[in-house]
Amino acid sequence: MESFTGEELTAIKELRKNLTSFLESGADAEEKQEPVDAAARSRIRERARDHMDNSTLWRYCQAHAFDLNQAQDMFTHSMVWKEEVGIEKLFDDFSGRQRGSYSVGQNAFYGGILDSCTVQGGPVLIERLGKLDVAGLSANEAVQKDCIAAYTGYLEDAWRRVRKAGKKIRGLIVVDLQGLSMSLLWHISLIKKITSIGPPNYPEITMRVCIVRAPTIFSMIWKAVVPFLPSRTKDKVKVLGNSEYLAELSEYIEGGEESIPDFLGGKLTDHSICPAMKVSEALQGS
Fold first, then answer.
1. Biggest CA-to-CA distance, the chain
2. Residues 167/2, Cβ–Cβ less than 8 Å
3. CA dist 57 to 15, 132, 270, Å?
4. What is the pLDDT of residues 58-85, one digit of tens each?
5. Mean pLDDT over all residues of the chain?
6. Are 103 and 146 in contact (CB under 8 A)?
7. Under 8 Å CB-to-CB from 240, ≥6 apart: which residues?
8. 232 within 8 A of 196, measured Cβ to Cβ
9. The whole model's pTM is what?
10. What are the pLDDT digits (tens) for 136-174?
11. Rounded distance, CA 257 to CA 36, Å?
């Protein structure tokens, strides 16, 4: 497990000092566009104090190359954002879901977290982006909202797991693109809306993003999507060849093929990855 350097610990200590002064001044309330009641302000500060450990503050620092002003802005904005979206309920709804009784949004959602970890101890996130019904979600605002709620709960779940792992531990995202079509480009605004949630609110969750089973049209779609991603995210992306991805994923994931879902060629049949149903199917199954 990689330890913090002396320089990193000094920066973390300084950020913690700055944040503590900021919160005690009451300036955090000014981050919201609307008036903050006492209860909401209390929850924001309580959440912020819970995020003052070294591992968490390192993630905010790392996300901005240790520019402490930017790290502080990111920290305070993310604490307020979590209050605004009601993160506790979104997390509870996602992490407490029961297979066979998913909500409409969870059935339309395309991701999940495995019970197994990376060989370094980080979470393994699976995203079946190729199955996402972008046309159906674009046409149904209610299901789209529920799906984004599931995505937000999924990110919060991953965030809590890396924080619990501690130090500089980060996770692995496996993005399965089987089924990807050009329709994604016609609904690129939806993809932008979804992918814009993570980077400003969940820094340094992932060590590596592995793209697997990419069709030939992927390069064209990638050119359209990549401008929405911060450089620190783009640098983590690795496209694995169709004939070699399973062996390489086995090197990243504890337990190898036994821990990789069967739809990716592994041997794991009991998992909780959301099914990415067509919106029409998700509505029928609700």
1. 57
2. yes
3. 7, 33, 35
4. 999 999 999 999 999 999 999 999 999 9
5. 91
6. yes
7. 210, 211, 212, 248, 249
8. no
9. 0.92
10. 999 999 999 999 999 999 999 999 999 999 999 999 999
11. 49
- At 11-54, the pLDDT tens digits run 999 999 999 988 887 655 555 444 568 899 899 999 999 999 99
For 273-286, the pLDDT digits (tens) are: 999 999 999 998 65
Per-residue pLDDT at 206 exceeds 70: yes
Tell me the residue type at 18.
Answer: N
- Per-residue pLDDT, 99: 67
Pairing of strands 171-176, 206-212: parallel
Tens-digit pLDDT profile for residues 179-191: 988 888 788 889 8
Angle between helices 188-195 and 141-165 (to 10 degrees): 30
Q: Over the chain, what HEC string results?
A: CCCCCHHHHHHHHHHHHHHHHHHHHCHHHHHCCCCCCHHHHHHHHHHHHHCCCHHHHHHHHHHCCCCHHHHHHHHHHHHHHHHHHCHHHHHHHHHCCCCCCCCHHHHHCCEEEEEEEECCCCEEEEECHHHCCHHHHHHCHHHHHHHHHHHHHHHHHHHHHHHHHCCCCCEEEEEECCCCCCHHHHCHHHHHHHHCCHHHHCCCCEEEEEEECCCCCHHHHHHHHHHHCCHHHHCCEEECCCCCHHHHHHHHECCHHHHCEHHHCCCECCCCCCCCCCHHHHHHCC
CA–CA separation, 190 and 139 (whole Å): 11
- Determine contact, residues 57/51, Cβ cutoff 8 Å: yes
- Give the Cα separation of 119 and 137 in Å (integer): 35
- Going by C-beta distance under 8 Å and a sequence separation of 6 or more, which residues neighbour residue 188? 224, 225
**Please, what's the b/e burial string for 124-133 (b: 16 or more CB within 10 A of its CB; e: otherwise)?**
bbbbbbbbbb
